[in-house]
TrEMBL record:
UniProt membrane topology term: Single-pass type I membrane protein
Protein name: non-specific serine/threonine protein kinase
Swiss-Prot/TrEMBL keywords: ATP-binding, Glycoprotein, Kinase, Leucine-rich repeat, Membrane, Nucleotide-binding, Phosphoprotein, Receptor, Repeat, Serine/threonine-protein kinase, Signal, Transferase, Transmembrane, Transmembrane helix
SUPFAM superfamilies according to UniProt: L domain-like, Protein kinase-like (PK-like)
Domain of life from the UniProt record: Eukaryota
Major place of residence: membrane
EC number per UniProt: 2.7.11.1
Species in which this protein is naturally found: Prunus avium
Residues of the signal peptide: none
Binding, ATP: 606
Cell location: Membrane
GO cellular component terms, semicolon-separated: membrane
Transmembrane domains' residue ranges: 517-541
Amino acid sequence: MKHRVMKARDLLGTLPKEMARLTYLKEIDLTRNYLNGTIPPEWGSLPLVNLSLLANRLTGPIPKELGDITTLKSLDISMNNFSGELPRQLGNLPLIERMLLNSNNFTGELPKTFGNLTTLKDFRVGDSHFSGQIPDFIKNWTNLEKLVIQASGLTGPIPLNISLLTKLTDLRITDLSGPAARFPSLENMKDMRTLMLRSCNIVGQLPPYLGDLTKLKTLDLSFNKLTGEIPSSFVSLAKVDYIFLTGNLLTGPVPTWAKESTDLSYNDFPIGDTGCKSQGGANLFASFSKGNSSKTVSCLGSAKCPKTWYSLRINCGGKEETIYEEKEKQFDGDTISVGPSSFRQSSTNWALSSTGYFTDDDRSQDTFIQTNESILSMANPQLYMNARLSPISLTYYGFCMGNGIYTVHLHFAETGFTNGKTYKSLGRRIFDVYIQGRLVQKDFNIVDKAGGISTAFIMKFNASVTSGTLEIRFYWAGKGTTGIPVRGVYGPLISAISVDPNFEPPPEPETSGGNDISVGAVVGIVAGGVFIILLIFGFLWRRGLLGQQNTLEDDLKGVDLQTGKFSFRQLKDATNNFDKANKIGEGGFGSVYKGLLSDGTVIAVKQLSSKSKQGNREFVNEIGMISALQHPHLVKLHGCCIEGNQLLLVYEYMENNSLARALFGPEESQLKLDWPTRHKICVGIARGLAYLHEESRLKVVHRDIKATNVLLDKNLTPKISDFGLAKLDEEDNTHISTRIAGTYGYMAPEYAMRGYLTDKADVYSFGILVLEIASGRNNTSYRSKEESLYLLDWAHLLKEQGNLMDLVDPRLGSDFNKEEMMLTINVALLCCNVTSTVRPTMSSVVSMLEGRAAVQELVSDPNASSFEIEAMRKHFQSSFGRNTGESQTQTASTEGPWTGSSTSAHDLYPVKLDSTYWDNRK
């Protein structure tokens, strides 16, 4: 027997090792079955040419023995559940042409031996958990025709030497984290047909040479940071099947050649009142010029609203339906036909925009509506008979809505897969959900949340409508399977949307009747009203309140306050008139109080001083920041109060105060944190920072990561606070601060000494914080009995001596996972490397802490490190004096540093550290 081909037969069981006895076997193709278990190492002795295990439920690591199959030309193990690192022996395959590894759980870096695979023509990795950068050794794959790296875990930038792969016809690299980079040099790839560089953090202008790639059929450069005008050479791309430039910063005139298959939505084109589509039919949804300070959708912003709506209900992909619950609810039908680049507007108060086409689709045509054929046993099944689909990005946009806080219900049911022991049940649909531009659900999997296929799941969120508009977006970030049950099944799916107000809408305006009043009465009322208004203005002016209010309003212009609003009376009642008994903290801009709202919600109210313009600016900065950032490991901002001279922020209440108090506070306030809890805290903080650095739309550098800025909820879940010091990592952003701000002992050397700020400064601070969590010691507390005055120094000394376990907090005893402890400390030391470029990204840190990636080798020059850190200490001691444990604000100036007021005022629960405690504690 030479061929064993059994495709799509729903075979059960495991792979038989006895098959190794078939010594003449050249092909094993078990594509799309229901097989489980591992690949038998014994198969490594077979003279196979083709091995395909695509779309099963196989697990475990890849046996290194597969590297012994020197005859192998094609290996496809995609869409399974394999894990672990790829064996370096796979780099020994001298004839390999196809290697498909996507949609698994692989970790670690691509083995360096893969640089030897010079016969490769098709290489695909995606939807996995690899670490490290895209390797430079891909330059050796000069025979490569197809390269797919989608949501693989690998980071950018795209290597410059990719230009050597001149035989490429299909290049797809998407969803890369890492530093911003210019467009790669691809002008010599004359046979390119599919070019997809989506969400790769590419900056700069579009290269004109793309217009010379005459064989292009698909060009997708969406969701980058491309600027400038579309080059005139792109006119030669008018015959390209699909062009997606969505979600960039492109300006200038909309090209006349752009047609229906061209998507230019979410850019900066000054389209005025021309509508959401160009004359040629290109999608221009959510394009606006930089002069449009309101940032509303220009093509809808000019539309006249016949009325104000206070609800929104859409049966996505289905016909109009009426649901009878507590009261009758009418859902609009959504059977609008869409294509790869579509904008459609309903007859009421909503519209939708869809971007993308289903690549490698086995179906006869793109399907943007999923129809369920089976019987559904759930409440309101009519809402789940159809669903709207999209290959990349699907946006529902409500307009003409009343401002206020709304409850958004998103209705899901996975109907693209089937139940039972069949390969058709093995699909994984994963996508992200955004509301008002904020990521509210990352890596959402309907089946996991609902507990099964064809089972309803409803997600509930609060959303703030501040300019009459509501945006709900679903985005495919390259994760999940793409070929189950057939190729082309992936991307976001939504069954229904319902939006209801959290407030009592005003009554409908009544039509005019016969109760007219006389002209004289009208004149009298108007004159009296004007007189009263003038009196009020005069009073406010004399009291100095009018000018102050105007100043605050000016400060708030241009800031999208996507958050709840509270009246001062509400917060006064909640805190019992700001009773001292409810005071739980004191910051540089005011006090923090515990409060109880009328609905039973416990809150923390930060009362900010408005005595200075600096306070107003910090207030605006903090609202603008925190309202745009939501994550399970970030402190949630419920809302704010702007009333007269009152400036207040309302946060979720954190029952267990700060991590600093739990570890270093007075003995009676400390918490007994065992090692599993401390490790969970480390991972949680890392995830929060990874969100700030790599996942949030804003890309934020926190600048003051420390124990007092980590709060603990009732379940000891860590949440990062204090975004007042955050630096938005975006060009032309008015909220960027030029001040050096942070806390000595946590600040990275390059930032403290030279003001050089990247996200790696946060990585350094995180490393210090992890050392504190592991040791139970504060980094800058003086310890007279120790050789070293600083925790980091002490850790390095113990590592050199081979005694790192001496660093561990004695309160943990001996009953803890020592291997996990050592791994965590080594990750911390890696984060604290003096050389910023050597420090890992926070997403890599998460993978290392969770054991999904190996800890990188610590590379540093001890002498250089000691010199740099000692120089930093002397600099701080001369600039700020001996009290170096406090937060510092330093302004970059050619006249030398100077100290401003402490900016750690954003600690919700400040803690004064007792340095004598360490000398007495055993």
